[in-house]
Amino acid sequence: MSYKQQVAEKLAAALQTLGAPDFTPEKVVDLLETPPNPAMGDIAFPCFQLAKALRKAPPLIAQEVAQQVNGAPVKEVQAVGPYVNVFLDQAIVAQEVVGTILRQKDAYGSRNVGQGKKVPIDLSSPNIAKPFSMGHLRSTVIGNAIANIMEKHGYAPVRINHLGDWGTQFGKLIVAYKKWGDEAKVKAEPIKELLALYVRFHEEAEHDPSLEDQGREWFKKLEDGDPEAARLWQWFRDESLKEFMKIYDLMGVKFDSFHGEAFYNDKMDRVVALLEEKGLLTESEGALVVTLDEYGMPPCLIKKSDGATLYATRDLAAALYRHETYDFAKALYVVGNEQRLHFQQLFKVLEKMGYEWAKEMYHIPFGMMLKDGKKMSTRKGKVVLLEEVLAQAIDDVLKVIAEKNPTLENKEEVARQVGVGAVIFHDLKNYRLNDINFSWEEMLTFEGETGPYVQYTHARACSLLRKGGYEQPENGAALAEGALESKEAWAVVTLLNSFPEVIDRAREEFDPSQIGKYVIDLAQAFNKFYANVRILAEEEAVKTSRLHLVAAVVIVLKEGLRLLGLQAPEEM
Ligand code: ARG
User: Hey, what's the torsion of the CAs at 90, 521, 105, 251, to 10 degrees?
Assistant: First the structure.
């Protein structure tokens, strides 16, 4: 049981004797606050809400409660105005927290909330033959972190890359390739070349409208399974995916499925039939739609007048498929905020179809990546390749290493871990719905709130353990009396203690930034401890006890970074 809970039980017991039995430990725990400064205690309980039940002024209640609360882990209780301020016994708490972490190691903070139930997570999902955008990067990074967090809590995440690999644009691309394409060029730089062909198609179509007709014709052929069309489409898809895989490999992100939009081609008739059967289809200007007036939403377009199905139809088919295949506890879609309406409509249509499980589907939106206040987009023909952003980050880190630690082994690998980490962390330290300002400086500095700063702190702590000849005990650790009595050590201990709660919140709110902010706080608290408390120069028992704390910090920083999708090199 956490210390907060233990204190809540003591407070609830006191309130019961005072005549307020409604204040159960669960209720009390929600009321607890952290005092603004440590001199006011570790936990504060405000008594305002009790005034009515007890018919007394809050300061008086605080005094009465304070008199009744005692016993480990509580050391001292003070009534200050309407607050009950609780001071914990630091030695007991430190022993318990550090001991637990050293015993549980990277399982610290793990819970089995999910009981192995599957959670398909739709993430990344770039479009074939188009550049991997900043939005796709955000989806990849946020989705991967959420998957890690769900897994930490006993769910079985299924990472699905719902590739944008279908649509009329493939007809145009086939026409453009047959007219102006060059196999070797596409092989060398698939995305760049295919995009150039696509752009050229649109330029030429301005003077030659027959191109549009040819594009439609080839898309029709593709839909009807024409071998040449199918071969070209497959080839575009393979080449594009190969290029996307380079990014995923660099970032260390793996997928369980690459079923994209095309996968659902043969599963669309069933969706339309089901909607028909349930009487949900309405005709509108020759097209078939599901109306959503009752929710104040525009209708969801299912089939165009020419019979073509749409993005939304494919998402309906995908939802049915995922429910049947995974029998999911929840289904998540990590997709930019601009698709908010699309997902609201999708979920409402499923609800109208009578599927209870639609309640467990969540769109997890995020904001934009801005550069100089403007959306970072891929301009016509001119591609800002994400791969180049990653390559540049890695290269910059390599330069710093060459300057600061030229003898480091595995320089290249460490630079990859830190460069990629910088890019990921730059995203995840912000609440996902906020727009992010893309800034090289902010991303790559080793000081301040960055990935490299946290990774560097972790490496420093590792080096301290090496210098101290520290060996981690198999089963917890006994701390010498007084060894961790300092405000710096206490700040580290209370943060370590709150790691499990932070993961809880991150999971409940699908919000990895909780962990991003947490690892920065922990790194800062650790660096203060390191700067102000002697460690290696102390006598053996004290030194070992302090190294136990350092070892606990190493475990938690590394695990926090792992949940975000970053690696933690031991030297850098
Ligand atoms: N390919 C789409 C895009 O780039 C994102 C797909 C998101 N997933 C989904 N099931 N709709 O905008």
Answer: 180
Mutate to test the pocket of ligand 1, among 125, 259, 316 (most ligand atoms within 8 A of CB): 125
Quote the DSSP letter at residue 479.
Answer: P
Question: Residue 96 falls within a domain, yes or no?
Answer: no
pLDDT tens column, 173-227: 999 999 999 999 999 999 989 999 999 999 999 999 999 999 999 999 998 999 9
Residues 347 and 451 in one domain: no
Query: Is the distance from the beta carbon of residue 85 to the nearest atom of ligand 1 less than 6 Å?
Result: no
Query: pLDDT tens digits, residue range 377-422?
Result: 655 444 556 888 899 999 999 999 999 999 999 999 999 999 999 9
pLDDT, greater one: 3 or 571: 571
> Is the same domain home to 30 and 141?
no
Nearest CA to ligand 1 atom 4: 126
Mutate which of 244, 323, 335 for ligand 1? The one with the most ligand atoms within 8 Å of its CB, which is: 335
Measure 162 CA to ligand 1 centroid, in angstroms.
6
Is 310 a member of any domain? no
- pLDDT for residue 378: 54
Please work out whether the CB of residue 218 comes within 6 Å of at least one atom of ligand 1. Answer: no
Give 501: exposed, middle or buried? Use CB within 10 Å, 0-12, 13-18, 19+: middle
Mean pLDDT of 88-112: 96
- CA 311 to ligand 1: nearest atom: 11
Residue 360 shares a structural domain with residue 395:
no
State the residue range of the domain holding 164.
118-262+326-370
- CA gap 25, 13 in Å, rounded: 8
For ligand 1, whether the C-beta of 164 sits within 6 Å is: yes
Which tens digit of pLDDT belongs to each residue from 455-502?
Answer: 999 999 999 999 999 999 888 889 999 999 999 999 999 999 999 999
Contact 162, 390 (CB under 8 A): no
Report how far ligand 1's centroid is from the alpha carbon of 418 (Å). Answer: 29
Q: What is the pLDDT of residue 385?
A: 67
Contact yes or no for 42/35 (Cβ under 8 A): yes
Q: Which helix (H) or strand (E) holds 141?
A: helix 134-152
State the pTM of this model: 0.94
Using most ligand atoms within 8 A of CB, pick from 132, 333, 339 the residue to mutate for ligand 1: 339
Contact present, 303 and 310 (Cβ < 8 Å): yes
Residue type (1 letter), 129? A
Is 49:33 a contact under the CB 8 Å cutoff? no
Are 284 and 346 in contact, with CB atoms under 8 Å apart? Answer: no
275 occurs within a structural domain: no
